[in-house]
């Protein structure tokens, strides 16, 4: 048995963490999360935290689901692994694909598996370029994405994403990917410009990029229905219909990244359904297994699938763990739980609206809060110095970090990104859990304001 101190020392000596300043980690030591149950996580010292992030936007059915452990155990005993290369398969990815085709928008009937959202976006990028090559248009390979987008951490994921810091460290992105403005009215709308007009203008930046490159050179547009890691940026209602119109007009494929929004978060199975988007590919991962196993599923629309199948020839792409039987067994059980407990419907009709109301009535009026926003159980609180002028506290991000630290000290795990405080809780949250979160966040805001305005 190791003490916390020992574990922290070993961790700092041997374990490189994702998205972490290792010098800071060495000085502070990591928090060891050792147990979790329902909506709560517990650290090694027994501290209980309400998990406002569902792990990393993924534990939609909450913690402690022994049914998922049993599904994995049964599958491991029977058939722990076999691949789906070379015209083989195991049964669970077959059955999961059928289930996903039933849940997905109606133009989607095929699935390609990986182990992570990043891998799945690599697959999507390769697949759309392969599609145009099969269609005899190999030059139609440019992808349009957005600044502040997050599409994962592999080379292709980083290149598709629009995070400056990540691009700088990459030192050379995958070619032929361009980034246009994000649809975030609070920050980018012009004086006097309403949300509707701003949404159209943001969408038309995609049209401008298509015209600049020439439509004959543009393969696809990729976007998260709601930008997640970029700060839960919710586009105006006018945005997605205009994007759809532009993609159709120029015969540009529409790729959605629903790694966060998939499987109930927005109050529908997919945000494509919430926003009425017809996509050619939908990248999903995370909540597909509620994070209990690593698994991603790229949902592929009929247009691309028909070409891929009918033209024949091999698509030279795949992962050892594509369609992993254990991960797929867990996904099937996870989707069964979401359905059985009516979690998607509950987010749509009950907890989603109640969450929005809590943010508006209890949080929005606070002196540090410029804006609150949410769809379903995904929301953000924008931290400002001055509500009227939207002036930020400098340096960027420092205020949100202060609020986050007070939140954690008061039993509320949430995330800070830029000046946004982010919430993406398990879908098992009830009205009582939402009230508890509201109280803890308000307390954190008060304490942070006291420090910041000293
Ligand atoms: N796409 C989006 C929208 C994400 O939020 C993430 C991860 O947070 C990814 C892709 C990458 O997924 P993964 O971390 O599983 O590779």
Automatic annotation (TrEMBL):
Keyword set includes Thylakoid: no
Q: Which UniProt keywords apply?
A: Aminotransferase, Pyridoxal phosphate, Transferase
Q: Which InterPro entries match?
A: Aminotrans_3 (IPR005814), PyrdxlP-dep_Trfase (IPR015424), PyrdxlP-dep_Trfase_major (IPR015421), PyrdxlP-dep_Trfase_small (IPR015422)
Give the EC number: 2.6.1.-
A family per Pfam: Aminotran_3
Q: Name one GO molecular function term.
A: pyridoxal phosphate binding
Q: Does the keyword Thylakoid apply?
A: no
This protein's GO CC annotations: cytosol
- Family assignment? Belongs to the class-III pyridoxal-phosphate-dependent aminotransferase family.
What name appears for this protein in its UniProt entry? Putrescine aminotransferase
């Amino acid at each position: 048995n190791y003490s916390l101190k020992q574990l922290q020392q070993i961790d700092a000596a041997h374990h490189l963490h994702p998205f972490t300043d290792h010098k800071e980690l060495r000085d502070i030591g990591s928090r060891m999360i050792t147990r979790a149950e329902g909506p709560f996580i517990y650290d090694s010292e027994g501290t209980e935290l309400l998990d406002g992030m569902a792990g990393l936007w993924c534990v939609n059915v909450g913690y402690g689901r022994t049914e998922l452990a049993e599904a994995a155990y049964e599958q491991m005993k029977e058939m722990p692994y076999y691949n789906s290369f070379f015209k083989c398969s195991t049964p669970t990815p077959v059955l999961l694909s059928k289930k996903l085709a039933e849940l997905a928008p109606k133009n989607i009937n095929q699935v390609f598996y990986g182990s992570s959202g990043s891998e799945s976006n690599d697959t999507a990028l390769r697949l759309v370029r392969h599609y145009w090559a099969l269609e005899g248009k190999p030059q139609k390979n440019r992808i349009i994405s957005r600044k502040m987008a997050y599409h994962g951490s592999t080379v292709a994921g980083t290149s598709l994403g629009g995070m400056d810091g990540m691009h700088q460290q990459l030192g050379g992105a995958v070619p032929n990917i361009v980034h246009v403005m994000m649809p975030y009215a609070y920050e980018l709308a012009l004086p006097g410009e309403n949300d509707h007009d701003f949404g159209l203008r943001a969408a038309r930046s995609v049209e401008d990029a298509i015209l600049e490159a020439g439509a004959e050179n543009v393969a696809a547009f990729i976007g998260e229905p709601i930008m997640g890691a970029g700060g839960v940026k919710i586009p105006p209602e006018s945005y997605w219909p205009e994007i759809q119109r532009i993609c159709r007009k120029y015969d540009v494929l529409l790729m959605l990244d629903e790694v966060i929004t998939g499987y109930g978060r927005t109050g529908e199975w997919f945000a494509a359904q919430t926003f009425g988007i017809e996509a050619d590919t939908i990248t999903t991962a995370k909540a597909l297994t509620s994070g209990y196993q690593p698994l991603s599923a790229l949902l592929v629309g009929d247009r691309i699938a028909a070409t891929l199948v009918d033209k024949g020839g091999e698509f030279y792409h795949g992962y050892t763990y594509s369609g992993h039987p254990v991960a797929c067994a867990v996904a099937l059980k996870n989707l069964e739980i979401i359905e059985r407990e009516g979690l998607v419907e509950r987010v749509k009709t009950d907890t989603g609206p109640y969450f929005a109301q809590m943010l508006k009535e209890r949080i929005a009026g606070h002196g540090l809060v410029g804006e609150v926003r949410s769809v379903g159980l995904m929301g953000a609180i924008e931290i400002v110095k001055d509500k009227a002028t939207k002036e930020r506290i400098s340096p960027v991000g420092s205020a949100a970090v202060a609020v986050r630290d007070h939140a954690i000290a008061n039993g509320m795990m949430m995330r800070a990104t830029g000046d946004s405080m982010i919430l993406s809780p398990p879908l098992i949250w009830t009205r009582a859990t939402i009230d508890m979160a509201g109280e803890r966040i308000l307390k954190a805001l008060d304490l942070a304001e006291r420090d910041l305005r000293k």
